[in-house]
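So, does this match?
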Amino acid sequence: MRAYLAIIFAMIMVGGNIPLGKLITETIPPTSFAMLRFISSSLVLIPLAMMELGDLQSLRRLNVRQWFEITCLSLFGAVLFTTFMLVGVQYTPAINAGIISSSLPAVIAVLSFLILREYISARTAGSITLAMLGIAILNLSDPSGHVSSAAATSSQSAIWFGNSLIFAAICSEALFAVLSRRYAAIIPVWTLSLLVHALAIPLTIPLLVMMDDGLQLPSASICFWTIAGYYILSASLLSFYFWCYGIRLIPASTAGIFTALVPVTSLLIAVLALNETLSWLQVAGLSFIFLSLWLGLSSKRRPATNSNPSVQES
């Protein structure tokens, strides 16, 4: 029971952070906040990693190729995911970001086939098609829920750009999920999280210089820093730990069911806290992606099929 609760808490935190990211980037540039997140998380994770048994031994056994792969984990799972997501929510409603994030299992299935050569069943192929159809429907809608015409407004173009960045973030996180399969089993949780966030600091510097002209910290209210602190704590520590705790005790295919909590949480917060409106086209897009999720998970429950890896938020 504890494992299931851990997975549920992890997915609720992931979904809640999507609309919170939209609030945060209204005050601080996305790349500056990403750098702040990585530095703060690394400082908190250092004592936690030092308490884990076997952390030094696990790191000493890593070869050059494995260190390169861990650097890729940091690049995709931390730097690119955070940057794409925070920039993307500046251009598209948080509702869209939450809906697009629910296509993650389908994206993981595609990458598992391309990278790991895992078999894609007919049901999984149908799941991927439905997910892409749901995302395409979102790109037809404007904030009022109307279908875009040839004379599309600049607002509609911005939403399409934002949707593309959110999908790029999902692809980055899916790459992280695929590449991290082997390391979650050989490196303790806090140590692996520290590596991912510490390596993200130098990787973020070029983006910080290009996009923000250096680190920019605003003179914000206590309310802002409370929200920012919760985002950092939940994204870098709690959701990562809860996911790793749960995934070790229950099958990945079963844990994947709870990814449905990500768009649900995002939608609730976007509608209730950000006063966003759910249009009929967004409902249609969400329906296709939920159908995609159901179809993909029903194929995983068949004994002959291999489980695909699931997301873990870094």
In short: The longest helix spans residues 154-179.
